[in-house]
Amino acid sequence: MRLKIRPMPTIYHFKGFIRDVKYKAYLAEPLLVYSFPEFDINVARPFGLLDLGTGQIGYSKWVSPKRTRTYPFERLYNIYNSPMRMTVIPIMKDEGFDGDLDRIQYSTISWMNLLNVYIVLGYYVDAKKNLSLSQRHREKLTGQKLDSAPVHSQMLEIAGYKQSALHWNRSLIEDRFVSVYQQALDAYESISRTTGVRVHNRSSQLGYLGKLMQDFQMFKDMSLRGSRGAALRETRTAHGLEYLADGSKATFEIENYLGGVYYLTADEIIQEEGKFVIQEEGKFVIQEEGKFVIQESKNATLGFLPSLPDIKDGLFKLILFSNLDYLTLDNKRIEFKARLKLTGVGVHGTLRLPTEERPIRNFLDANLSRINKRVPSVIERLNLEAANNRNLEVEIGGNA
Question: Taking the model in full, what pTM does it have?
Fold first, then answer.
């Protein structure tokens, strides 16, 4: 479909509503099954299945509470087909005085609530000094390990929990957040004494914690405002490995049926030409503006396709967008769809999924000299993913 050429605002601000999330992941890796009594979060793979005797639960592990590090969404994607899902998130990660200090944000909790993922709050109790750094950055830690006992205990509680992830996550924050955070601070003081590496100031962190946890509502409001600010900042940043040539960026204010609000971003918003019939306040209305495409882009700077972790990260972000009940712009409902755009080096032609077998075969034949053995399988599974999940499509083409 030809794209409409017209002046576009720098950033769109959308509002939407989501009632339920249904999604089937076709690129998910086979999951290794662990017997729960012998399970150790520091030794196990970053994602897998826990066998509790009465059933299995998918788990994943975050290295840092910051979502932009180490593909936590790719790990969640890999367990998304599990009927019950939990994810272990360190409440904070202090990399030492010369390193980063990351703390869990309420927006992360919101994502997990919306996707019905149970949170396990962890904290690091062991680390070693990073000896490979220069004198300018000698106050840094590496090889951090979680306290496995509280992780194991929370997992066992979740296994017998009868309510939704939303209820679990809410009670976890209200009842245990402060004590777990203080345990994390105590652990880092011990790590600092053992390694000789300075960590970030405890009193300033306690001040942060005091302001944050006056009550749960303040925690939510402060973090959501921060997340909205981060979303706005992200829309102004073009990352080097992204291919952002198609459209504008956007922020999304998404509300669910429980009244929770989620601030999200997308790489690009594209407006396609055409007339669309949408339902608004019980009436069918012809929309002249065309359809908006919410696009996440992943680019390979050397290969034919981006890496599988990159592809899964993009797909996971689109789960929410593809499941939106409706979306508005300037208080008017719009027609929309979610698209994952994959670009690579030397790709001939463009393939839009879902489609029939013949276009896929023609596309692969046209790029026979560029593809390796994994590409046909990846494209076949991407086609299944786009065909079996509503409002989702995948586009594969060359980069500029």
Answer: 0.86
**CA-based nearest residue to 57, from 177, 175, 174, 168:** 168
Check if the beta carbon of residue 109 is closer than 8 Å to that of residue 260.
Answer: no
The residue-averaged pLDDT of 117-132 equals 94
Between CA 225 and CA 253 the distance in angstroms is: 12
Residue 229's pLDDT is 60
Confidence tier at 351 by pLDDT (50, 70, 90): very high
**Extents of the domains making up the chain:** 11-17+239-398, 31-231
The CA-atom distances, in angstroms, between 360 and each of 181, 249, 342, 368 are: 51, 30, 15, 12
- 234's tokens: 């992200």
CA nearest neighbour of 269 among 244, 287, 286: 244
With pLDDT > 70 as the criterion, what percentage of the chain qualifies? 81
**pLDDT at residue 96 greater than cutoff 80:** yes
In the predicted structure, residue 55 carries a pLDDT above the cut 50: yes
Residues near 65 by beta carbon (within 8 Å), at least 6 away in sequence: 89, 90, 91, 92, 93, 102, 103, 104, 105, 108
Residue 283 predicted with pLDDT over 70: no
Pick from 19, 22, 45: nearest CA to 33: 45
DSSP 138-185: -S-EEEEEE-HHHHHHHHHHHHT--S-HHHHHHHHHHHHHHHHHHHHH
Decide which of 112 and 245 is more confident: 112
Handedness of CA 159, 162, 167, 170 (dihedral sign): negative
More confident residue, 386 or 320: 386
| Cα 170 to Cα 268: distance, rounded to the nearest angstrom | 32
| R_g of the chain computed on alpha carbons | 22
Q: Which 3 state secondary structure label does DSSP give 320?
A: helix
In the prediction, which pLDDT does 218 show?
54
**Cα–chain center distance at 105:** 13
Residue 300 · residue 244 · CB < 8 Å = no
Q: Could you tell me which residues are beta bridge partners of residue 33?
A: 49
Q: Which of the pair, 300 or 136, is modelled with greater confidence? A: 300
Tell me the C-alpha distance between 117 and 316, whole Å: 13
Using the CB atoms, write b or e for 61-86: b if 16+ within 10 Å.
Answer: bbbbbbbeeebbbbbbbbbbebebbb
* Contact between 324 and 18 (Cβ < 8 Å): yes
